[in-house]
Amino acid sequence: MDTDKDIQDSLQRCGVRRDVDVCRFVLSKKKLTSVPDLSRFPFLRELWLNNNKIRELSCRSVNCCLTELYLHNNNIKSISGALNHLTCLRLLFLHNNQMRGLEDTMHELRRMQNLQTAKPGYRLHVIHCLPSVQVLDKKAVRSEERRRSFQSHMPQRHSVLRSVAFCRWTT
Question: Which residues have CB under 8 Å from 77's CB, separation 6+?
Answer without folding.
Answer: 55, 56, 97, 98, 99, 100
